[in-house]
Amino acid sequence: MKDETITEDMVDVIKSYQEYVPYIDGKMAPIFMGGDGLSVERANDAINARMDGGTEEDRLNGLIPKSEVWHRDVNMLQAIYHELYNTSSIRDKGTLYQLRNRCDRRQVTRDVTNVNASRDFLEFVARTYTILAAMELLGMKDTADNPVDMPKSGSQEANKTYLYNIARQIIQNCVFIENRVPEGDLLEKDQDRVSCGFPGCDITYAVDGICLQRHRAACLYRVVPEHQYHKGPITVQYKQKTSSVQQQINKADDYKRNYCCALLREGLLDMLRHNVTRHNDGKRQLVQWKLCFILSSIKGHSKYKILAFDFLAAYNSMLSERKAERLLHNQTVNVHGGKGHNIPCDLALEFFNRELKDGIKAMGSAMTTSAVNRSSRSLKMCNAALKAFDTNYKLFTGIRRRKAVEWTAEIQLLCNELSPEKLFNYIPNREFRSFPMYERDHLAQVNLVRLNKWMDKRKEILHRRRRRYHHFP
């Protein structure tokens, strides 16, 4: 048995994995080795310890450690609950903990011991807040009311356009933050730039070239009808940044609304991460890694800050184009088939580990290294045989598939209860007692100068590792 916390044992583990690495023209064709953040860190330490080996096998060049998606998402979910979940906020109507007690979700805790329950509850709150924001936007006091400006034609296209407009206003009013200003030395001069062209997308480029074309091909706003495109140069103007003293003096802000908008934003982002993984959307997954890098920098999660930056560096510069696409699009696995049924590779491995551990526990005192190896090699065939037996004899195994929960009644109840609070209306000088002076603009906390210095140092470290990557096919 090997202990991955010991470098020598981790070297032996990687050597055993290298038996499955193929060779092309007498040279290793390295493959990816995924894992959680701690496993990737230890694998890199083991590879760095053998950098002076005489051969490729001794240098452990057959494997490329990479971080997986599920552990990243759990880490992001943990950061959300650490920030927005406070047990002293039970009397603050509309906070995450108050809603948890109101809906009796006892499996939801601040430490996210139950990932599925915590994720489902965050999605439930995000859906509730989305409907509540739409009600306040349309002037509805109850879920039974009808909007005044609802289209009377009733056609599908009219209703679709109306729904898109409402969703766009909710995102612009409650999620996006306007007038974000870069820091001093990184402030760009005003210049004419070419916009994306899709309504709602604020990304601009210096010239109308191939970079703009690639962005437009993957832009999230491309679903808007063609006649609403706006093209041509726009002028980017930055307003002068106010000092921190002036920000502290300006207390006439709606901090209760800030908290609710932040909760809505984090819930929608978590739903987006789940949707991206289920559909194995590589381009949007790349955006999630960028967001993970920024948020990890803000929250102080140094390990996932390094892992996210290494992932982006490997995709953009360190790997060949073919290997980079494999890295990006091979982060999930579809076990049962069908569209939108992908799960992260590390989550699938957790399922296999659970089955293997059940078999190891049954060995008792007869557990040896050879017995564990034999059990792991026969795991797939044994599970297939047991599944066929249970299916043919229609036996109940005690494990049921998770079914979609109907939330309509609970959402209507919460919307009617929270509607008098006007959580998404701007009312100055109000706040939750458990979250005083809450600011929802986390990106304003980023010190861009310090972050750029950190990235320069990390690039130097990765440059020494680059010699392992330059020959990858």
Description:
This protein has about 475 residues and is mainly alpha-helical. It contains 17 helices and nine strands. Strands 6-5-7 form a three-stranded antiparallel β-sheet, with no helix packed on it. Strands 1-2 form a two-stranded antiparallel ribbon. Strand 3 (about 30-35), helix 2 (about 35-50) and strand 4 form a beta-alpha-beta unit. Helix 5 crosses helix 9. The longest helix has 25 residues, at about 255-280. The protein is globular, with a radius of gyration of 26 Å. The two termini are about 35 Å apart. Mean pLDDT is about 85; it is low at about 180-190 and about 225-250.
Outline:
The protein is mainly alpha-helical and 473 residues long. It is built from 17 helices and nine strands.
Percent helix among the residues? 40-55%
The number of helices is 17
Classify the beta-strand content into a percent band: 5-15%
Number of strands: 9
Round the Cα radius of gyration to an integer and report it.
Answer: 26 Å
Overall morphology: globular
Helix-strand sequence: HEEEHEHHHHEEHEHHHHHEEHHHHH
Mean pLDDT: 83
Structural class: mainly alpha
Task: Characterize the biggest β-sheet.
Answer: 3 strands, antiparallel
Straight-line N-to-C gap: 34 Å
Low-confidence parts = 181-190, 224-250
Spatial strand sequence of the major β-sheet: 6-5-7
Descriptive labels:
473 residues; two-stranded antiparallel ribbon; mainly alpha; three-stranded antiparallel sheet
Topology overview:
Layout: H1 7-17, E1 23-24, E2 27-28, E3 31-35, H2 37-49, E4 63-67, H3 69-84, H4 96-102, H5 115-138, H6 156-174, E5 192-195, E6 204-205, H7 210-218, E7 233-235, H8 244-249, H9 255-279, H10 282-299, H11 302-318, H12 321-329, E8 332-333, E9 343-344, H13 345-363, H14 369-377, H15 379-393, H16 408-418, H17 448-465
Parallel strand pairs: 3-4
Antiparallel strand pairs: 1-2, 5-6, 5-7, 8-9
Helix pairs in contact: 1-2, 3-9, 5-6, 5-9, 5-16, 10-11, 11-12, 11-17, 13-14
